[in-house]
Amino acid sequence: MEESDKANKENFLYPISSYYGQFKPENLVFNANLQEFAQKVGYIVNLQTSGKITSEEAYKQIKALWKKLKSSKKELGIHDKPSNES
Known about the structure:
Structural class: mainly alpha
Distance between the termini: 48 Å
Largest sheet: none
Number of helices: 3
Oligomer: single chain
Radius of gyration: 16 Å
Helix content: 55-70%
Order of helices and strands: HHH
Strand content: under 5%
């Protein structure tokens, strides 16, 4: 497979949307993690809907992804409430 074909496939399977929030490195990283989470949840739901995995397996996989996302938020120091800093 040519490099450009591989890049096109990657862009199709794993699209990344632009980030428009407050620019901080940790926000940018978390946004990428959040997009990856959403994409993987979509794949898991499609696998469950098509009968490839059970509802229980889908739940377990999504729960594991959620824990990973939650952990990344904590590690990046992102808080639920925005700070009063400008």
